[in-house]
Amino acid sequence: MIIWLMLALFFIMLLAGVPIYLVLGCLAVIGWLVDGVPLISLAQQFANEMNSQTLVAVPLFVIAATFMERGGITRALINFAGTIAGRNRGGLAIVCVIATTFFAAICGSSVATAMAMGTALIPTMASRNYPASFSVGTVGAAGTLGILIPPSLPLLIYGLIAEASVPRLFLAGVIPGLLQGALFVAYIIWYSRKNKLPLEDRMSIAEMIRCCRDAIPALFIPLVVLGGIYTGFVTVSEAAGVAAFAAIIVSVFVYREVALRDIPDVLSEGIRQTAVIIVIILSALAFGHWLTSAGVTRSIATLVTEWGLNSWQFLLLANAIMFVLGMFLEVISVILIFVPLVLPIIEHLGIDPVHFGLVVVLNMELALLTPPVGLNLFILKNISGERMATVIRGTLPFVLILMFLLLIVTFVPQISLWLPELAYGR
């Protein structure tokens, strides 16, 4: 009975507009009080969850993303991507996908990626007479690569919740991420030729050399960070610290788009974003702990067993549930609510937790592009000034591509597991 009451209260509070961290925190407090557990134990639970080396990486990656968004790294990567895209129809859209791929390899946040790329590219696309819906759709969809290509904050948080290897999760995102980028580029080329989008100007050899030279400091960051993780030279938390430090140095002393006097302001913005994430994580972990102690997760696992679902049937059901949740909740909230519930089930069905982590994150990419709460949609609306209907229309083809990719990754686990198994063994 208490479970149904808690579920009803959850939706009532969400519909009333209560922030998700308060919803989860209140439900955790109610659950602990119903069980007769002193609330001091809840405070101790918060302290225990904070004592995590993996959690330390979250604020550091957020700070790194904040400096990269402001520090000229975006411009350098866009110019470098232009040398790769060449003189093709719709070249700016191809540049967007390529530059976003490189930016995602440093950033880990879809919102920061979409904001940085949108601010730089949408006005330029408009000046070149690109259709508005196509421009915003390309930037919004490409921005989702920020949470798939490593390092990725959602994968980091999933690893924290599922107690899965974060380096394996990061490696698992590489091939799906590159495949997603390739599918986007293929669609852009087809659309651009069909609609006769303008050809971009050809770069001179001197311009190409200058763009490549200017991009070296930006490209050096993911090389050091990811190389350090995969060689075992640094832990994920230490790599996050390296990323933050490198982003500050490159932004301030190389590209010089962040002055020394601006550092406290940028740091405070990153810390504010981190505080929101940490509070949501703690509230969700406390609520998840109550769900486990109350036997809810065990009951769900038993129910799935009684239904006789096999692994592929469960994965289809999980995708459907996450798609619906993603329409109404933001990414981290969905992961923190849904993953603890299904961990016993994926263990029982023999589903690899690393593979399931990629399935979760691909669903979260869709969540960023689906109304009414898709964050990338609102970011692009604010940047472009277009109507929400225009933004949604532009992202729709990319949503269909993402759904296709999700099905492939869901039912062909080796797409995500091959690289981590190659590096670390089974």
Structure commentary:
With 426 residues, the chain is mostly helical. It is built from 21 helices and no strands. Helix 6 (91-107) runs parallel beside helix 8 (132-143) and helix 17 (331-349) packs antiparallel against helix 18. It is a multi-pass membrane protein.
Count of individual helical segments = 21
SSE order, one letter for each helix or strand: HHHHHHHHHHHHHHHHHHHHH
Unreliable stretches covering 5 or more consecutive residues: none
Structural class: mainly alpha
Tell me the radius of gyration: 22 Å
Largest sheet: none
The count of DSSP E runs of length 2 or more, i.e. the number of strands, is 0
- Rounded to the nearest angstrom, the distance between the terminal CA atoms is 43 Å
Q: What gross morphology would you assign?
A: globular
Helix content range of the residues, please? over 70%
Strand composition percent: under 5%
Mean pLDDT over the residues: 81
List keywords for this structure.
TRAP transporter large permease protein; TRAP_DctM; DctM; transport; mainly alpha; 426 residues
Which helices and strands, and how do they pair?
Blueprint lengths: L1 H14 L4 H15 L4 H12 L2 H18 L2 H13 L5 H17 L2 H18 L4 H12 L9 H10 L3 H7 L1 H21 L10 H26 L5 H19 L8 H31 L2 H12 L3 H18 L2 H19 L3 H15 L7 H10 L3 H24 L2 H11 L2
